[in-house]
Design brief:
This protein is of the alpha+beta class. 32% of the residues lie in helices and 43% in strands.
Length: 207
């Protein structure tokens, strides 16, 4: 009889544990996924994420909407990054990325486990007076020390770019255009005094 009572007590404990686990699964996984199907939530999330990216890159970022694919994977639609003159510098139809929440919370670093960029367009413009590209301000900001800047280290484990269009405009020169640029970059990191990464493959065509 005692053995049966112990077993019954153990089964009750298991049921409680299972109920707690199921509740947490619904609250932490299914509920956020369900909420992110609501257009208003997607637009509000896009505004928050765009604000974070604007702070990281120190360049205005606009997003149409953001969807939560899984607990750590998001999909951003209609990505636009402006340069300091307010011109479109980077645009993309979609950006899918997986973010390490633990690194963001504990180390104040944006660690992206993987990212994929679809139908991107990078428009580089060289200033005729300084010779600097319009993207240089963003690159400089990402590599500034924390002591003198609010920039956040960005570490991308792997990024895949498919069919990107890249153009370079310079005064009194014919614009250079590269189409269907596809590449995979590993361990791309922007941090204090350092920018680096490794390119696995690269292909493109020119006009």
């Amino acid at each position: 009889m005692r053995h049966w009572q112990v077993n019954r007590h153990f089964l009750k404990v298991l049921k409680v544990v299972a109920w707690i686990a199921a509740t947490l699964f619904v609250l932490l996984y299914l509920l956020p996924l369900g909420l992110f199907r609501i257009p208003a939530v997607q637009k509000e999330a896009a505004s928050r994420v765009a604000g974070l990216l604007t702070e990281i890159f120190d360049s205005p970022v606009q997003l149409e909407r953001v969807e939560l694919i899984s607990w750590t994977n998001i999909e951003a639609h209609r990505v636009i990054v402006l340069d300091t003159a307010g011109r479109r510098m980077i645009t993309a139809d979609r950006l899918i990325g997986g973010i390490s929440l633990s690194d963001l919370i504990t180390q104040q670093e944006v660690r992206i486990t993987s990212a994929r960029l679809f139908e991107a367009d990078l428009r580089l413009i060289r200033d005729p007076k300084t010779g600097r590209l319009n993207i240089q301000h963003t690159i400089d900001h990402l590599s500034k020390p924390k002591s003198s800047s609010k920039s956040i280290p960005v570490d991308i484990n792997s990024i895949i770019i498919r069919d990107m269009r890249l153009s370079l405009s310079e005064a009194e020169r014919e614009r250079l255009v590269i189409n269907k640029l596809s590449t995979r970059v590993r361990r791309l990191r922007f941090s204090k005094g350092y920018i680096g990464g490794a390119i696995d493959a690269l292909s493109f065509t020119t006009d």
